[in-house]
Specification:
0% strand; 55 residues
Length: 55
């Protein structure tokens, strides 16, 4: 029975990790993607507006 107690923690951690990855993948895109992209674009535009042209 020692082998069962030795294998349970890695199996539980693997299942948790797979759940986290699946959650991250599912949260990409969708209805919030346009809002997230708009926020990122606004921040980039604000940063670029504050910097002089580097030519």
């Amino acid at each position: 029975m020692d082998y069962v107690s030795a294998l349970v923690p890695p199996i539980v951690m693997a299942m948790f990790f797979i759940g986290v990855v699946v959650t991250i993948v599912k949260s990409q895109g969708g209805a919030n993607k346009a809002k997230e992209d708009a926020v990122v674009d606004a921040v980039i535009a604000r940063v670029e507006a504050g910097q002089p042209n580097q030519k």
